[in-house]
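Worked example 4.2. Below are the chains of a multi-component assembly; read each line carefully before continuing.
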Amino acid sequence: MSVNLPDMQKYANLPDELFVINEDSTGAEEISRPSTTYWHDVWHRFRRDPLAVIGASIILIMAVMAVVIPMLSPYTYSGMDLTSMNMGPSLAHPCGTDQMGRDLFIRIMYGARISLTIGIVAAAINFVIGVIYGGLSGYIGGRTDMVMMRIVDILSSLPSLLYIVLIMLLFGSNMPSVILALCFTSWIGTARVVRSEVMRLKFSEYVLASRLAGGRTWHLLRTHLLPNAMGPIIVSTAFLIPNAIFSEAFLSFLGIGIQAPMASWGSLANDAIPMMLSQPYQIFFPVLAICLTMFSFNFIGDGLRDALDPRLKK
Amino acid sequence: MLKYILKRLLAGVLTIVVLITISFFMMHAMPGSPFSPNEQKNVPPEVLARIAASYGLDRPVFEQYLSYWRNLLHGDLGISYKKQDTTVNSIISQHFPVSARVGAVAVIVALIIGIPMGVLAALYRGRFMDMAAMVFCTIGISVPVFVISVLLLYLFAGVLQWLPSYGLTTWRHYILPVACLAFNPIAYITRQTRSSMLEALEQDYIRTARAKGVKELWVVGKHALKNALTPVITYLGPLIAGLLTGSFVVERLFSVPGVGRYFVQSVSDRDYTMIMGIVIFFGIFVVICNLISDILLAIVDPRVKLNS
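Applying the procedure described above to all two chains together yields the following structure tokens:
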């Protein structure tokens, strides 16, 4: 101890009472607030991010509307009414009608069903593939990891959109094949994140202890490695949703996504291009829906990133 | 250095082989041959068989695969199924220069706008300039390319009628397609430059430079910027791939006679050889761009090849 002795001597003849910081220490051991878990903390931080909350609310409202409104509405997505074609927004048709007299509002709501389903299902599948692939690669390590990562490198340097187009042609233009096509390469990002997290955690004391106690690979991955790596994994999955929605809208916009008479936001926008100058509302509403959703999911993703890993915040 | 380049080259070649193989077998798994009697009802089956044979479709798949490779190594991407005397090579040699020109202008515009915007945002961190740049970045990252294209087309060519909406003859025709293509990349480059600039400005060598009395402009322009730009180089590969994606939409909307528009058209025509040829061409192009940006990065930043 390198304490300055002359300094200490200065205090030597002061009364002892001065050194008692808190005489009544009976309450010191008491826990004044319930202890918070990591997820509690995350939720607390997420809730205080206004953009993320707005984004989550928009998505929630949109999801409820997408489920409820088609059940209550007098119109269907394919019901044509040749007496009311190309009508602007009105009380009967809040977003107007298209050139076949179909109610655009209800078509946008059905489009929301398609987009949200595709976004969430594709993200969920990518999450599962990414976690398994990345988890195994990171956990096994060595040569297996090398080979698995080289495969991923090759797949990721292929221009994925071209392959999505090929898969769509191969399996036909419907929702399952859109999802399948989106799962071709999107899991790579998640797999890389999972791998690096698992590599980082693999040699930490609690994992070694668990292994010494006889834990099997699967047990270690499931109870120690993956739960602790969940933060970054969730963030990378959250950004997969807007990507999937974008890709579907993009394919439909090019005319190779969802086929008529079903309509996704992309195909609604595509159908409205010829009428753009005379009926701009026909393109405005689908585009607005796409933008709102993309913004919301990106805000949610940013919010989750800041909430799950505050160190990343800049 | 040489070892690193060789390694990257090998990976690139392997990627191209995988790419060609996947595309070939996917094309062969496509439902319905263009020359099957079910699709062409008013042509006698014997004639269809003759046409199929002239494309080599009667031979075993693996043999066709080998001959595709043989042709490819001679630089021949095949003949269109739908247009009898059009080769994929002729389409690419006619239309790719157009796409490349628009794409190159878009890359330059994205770099010229994105880098200074990112630097300014980092220098004025937390101030108005930074806020404005970040709002723009959020919009640029969230709004898909086809949405921005439709909006710009509607506003500038439709309502205001300031710019032409069709073709590619004068410099004014370039403005809208280039703006649409560069929109998302500008946002990415700005965000990337800002965050790596912020990081660079906190480094010790910046403090040293300031302590030595180096002028602020020089500190930022030379010492910080040089190190902040390496992530932007990494982004150049994906940027090219992104421009291809964008070009499908932009070339179709603005009637630009490029390969992207042709690709979309062959997809709706189900012209399989054409689709495969263009996919392989684009794929090789993207892989080469990635390769160049990787090697460029290793030259600029020697730490890269030590890590790999």
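Take a moment to check your reading of the output against the notes. Chain B has a mean pLDDT of 83. Chain B touches chain A through 48 residues (CB under 8 Å).
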